[in-house]
Predict the structure.
Amino acid sequence: MSHIVIIGGGFGGLYAVRTLKGAPVQVTLIDRRNFHLFQPLLYQVATGWLSPADIASPLRAVLKRQRNVQVLLAEAIDIDGTNRRVLLKDGEVHYDTLIVATGARHHYFGHPQWETFAPSLKTIEDATEIRRRILFAFEAAEREADPERVRSWLTFVIVGGGPTGVELAGTLGELTKDTLRHDFRHINPAESHILLVEGTDRILPTYPAELSAKAAAALARLGVSVRIGATVTDIQPDSVILRSNEQSEKIATRTVVWAAGVQASPLGRILATATGVELDRAGRVMVAPDLSIPGHPGIFVIGDLAHCRNQQGQPLPGIAPVAIQQGHYVAELIQQRLRGQTPPLFHYRDRGSMAIVGRAEAVADIGGRRFSGLLAWLAWLFIHLIHLVEFENRILVFTQWAWNYFTRNRSARLITGEPPPST
Amino acid sequence: MSHIVIIGGGFGGLYAVRTLKGAPVQVTLIDRRNFHLFQPLLYQVATGWLSPADIASPLRAVLKRQRNVQVLLAEAIDIDGTNRRVLLKDGEVHYDTLIVATGARHHYFGHPQWETFAPSLKTIEDATEIRRRILFAFEAAEREADPERVRSWLTFVIVGGGPTGVELAGTLGELTKDTLRHDFRHINPAESHILLVEGTDRILPTYPAELSAKAAAALARLGVSVRIGATVTDIQPDSVILRSNEQSEKIATRTVVWAAGVQASPLGRILATATGVELDRAGRVMVAPDLSIPGHPGIFVIGDLAHCRNQQGQPLPGIAPVAIQQGHYVAELIQQRLRGQTPPLFHYRDRGSMAIVGRAEAVADIGGRRFSGLLAWLAWLFIHLIHLVEFENRILVFTQWAWNYFTRNRSARLITGEPPPST
């Protein structure tokens, strides 16, 4: 029986696996983590709205009734295209067809040392670490006497005005204005300064300009200062240097979150070495129109790791809908090939884009219709719930959302992760 | 206004704070963590049933409407009884009355090196680390070819047959028999070996003997082997040495959990140095019948840190009901003193004891009535919910419990905490 190996249990890999349900093939899913992560909601963990388990589903639980799949908790370190092997840190797996869906990581534009002071939001551990830093900043401010230092503890800088940056800044605005309102005795969290820094001339630069403006207005209502046309030139433990209009400005802050750059997973480079395939500047694999690697019809690359263009020649963005459609497409293609059929090329159906700004506040562009406010927020909720519907914890997440919405509560605001000091 | 400083936001400290609501005093609660932890449910986090945030409530959220309280996220490192000061790692706080409620830690009976191989269950970080080890053991077994090694990965040793050990062993039995049933392709989790090791002649040694027998029978049904009269003489990364009847036995295992010994918080020793008060062998403070330190009527010690005897001269156990009643008592006493009244001595009302063994299976001794099975389980659920009722997330926890109960699901079984390897 044909053996299909899929590396990566994100949106692309998981949807490929599920599409192969019942197919006369054997599937092996390899992932370093034992869970699928619903990345679009990571910022809600970082701000104490949801718990890690609310947005992470154990891969074995999701796939336990799909008998043609085995899950391996393992790390792929090399690919041998000649002998059709994936080399693992501890072992190897042979494949007939390989799907690589290992996604992207954050990228500090040549300044890897910034990561210590400005973590990114890609993993569960990132989210709980950012949550720890944000919550600790208020605790430190509460105990600080010097007004300058209080101000720096209450200044939060988010670098990058894409959807993640916007969502994080908006939620942080709500946290300071609303959730934490009665929590402190010496500081007023509502006096926090939240800066959202974007290098281009508007936030959400890949969205229609009209929605960028609406999102900026909504952020302003939540007390977020948006700095467009500004780039970060340095990050230190207690400050960030911004440069805009050829002027530099030093912002005193203790909490910086990086939401600016992504870079393809290192498996891209490994594939380039193994197959000679070309990479783009972000390290993504230049795939053929059927998402295979040119000259290697048995190796596919999907999701954030793939550089794929739409009919207009534009590269597709690194978002969940693209990965889901690609995973589905490749799994169908493999079955069509097995049946001796000629599959069509990949065609991305753009169903629109949306970003949440705050409680009952979002912007959306669906099928060319643009809307914002409560309606967009409900659409966002609905579409996210549809995707969560795949998973067992959807009812709990919905309960949690509804509960938090009506009570304005964020019960998951725990400072954890650092081993507690020994007293 | 009289300033009452409380160190420790566990059951004792938090109930003292809440009893002082509306009193004409100023209260400062000092804790190293920003949340109150519902410790009796920690084992449910360790086995993937609940998330950390389900059993941890941010102290500021719990107390935000109690205006006479301020919360300090800080670590107390010394007490100056002469000048009535608590010295913090970074600062100091003056008090008129001090309540020390810093609880207990685990204790390895002179073998601190065992902690690396056999973590205890005291903090949220302990629970997620134990969860990681338990879940990873099944993953490693799934990928292991050698039957000996598979067996050692599927052998779990829990040291200590008190309530925590019994609850953990029972829940682990359910996890292997039930939750993970369809998750693996190469191993059968139901073939796991779960050993519960107890040094005395029965598990739950502080409970009536009848309940110990019922709990042992329930554990046997869940596949747990109970080893009574056995002590651990060595722990290595891949084995445990048990000694019973003057014979030693080596158990090959990769997962050991320590639920055996507790020792009072180091603040006990600090109090002994500062005030000359006597400590018992576990480092607990020998308090006066009104829970103050003899000769220091303005310093109280409550909860697991206090050595306090009942009318029969038996020391009270280190359990939540004792701490809660003591916190309540001291807070009332302080108010009576301020009103010029003479307070009564502390009198513990023993409302019984219970332990959960598995799904719909528990043992209870309430007011001299002993029962087990579903009824005891419902009593356990009810009493725990009553206490959770103090906190905002009770509805969510109840939903989660009900959901998990009916679906036999454990959605929180995530392997987290270790930074993911870099691919």
Observations:
- Confidence is low (pLDDT under 50) at residues 419-423 of chain B.
- The two ends of chain B are 59 Å apart (CA to CA).
